[in-house]
Write a structure and sequence with these properties.
alpha+beta; 3 helices; about 20% strand
Length: about 110
């Protein structure tokens, strides 16, 4: 559990750094960064969602999910989790469904 929370905190720092200076106000950067961090944390804490395969970008409360998922159900779960986060205005998905061809469980 500690490793998961530590990983989420490190991931949050990595995600926040590139957002600074992207033409957003300080308040928007903090709010969007907070939303992104909370969405990623929700993904890390849900065993049905492959958190490392999904990228999260937030701009003015609109969350965009990109990356790969194993199924339509995983995509739906990721969208549902993102929508539950306070401050999320909308969720857009460009997730690609790519089933595991080798059955390795990713």
């Amino acid at each position: 559990m500690f490793k998961t929370k530590f990983f989420a905190a490190i991931l949050a720092l990595v995600l926040v750094a590139p957002m600074i200076g992207c033409g957003k106000s300080v308040g928007e950067t903090i709010d969007d960064a907070t939303i992104t961090t909370r969405v990623k944390t929700a993904f890390v804490n849900d065993p049905a969602v492959g958190a490392l395969r999904i990228d999260v970008d937030t701009f003015k409360g609109v969350v965009t999910l990109s990356g790969r998922v194993k199924s339509k159900q995983e995509e739906a779960q990721a969208i549902a989790l993102a929508k539950k986060i306070r401050g999320v205005v909308d969720v857009k998905s460009t997730l690609q469904i790519e089933p595991d061809p080798g059955g390795s469980g990713w």
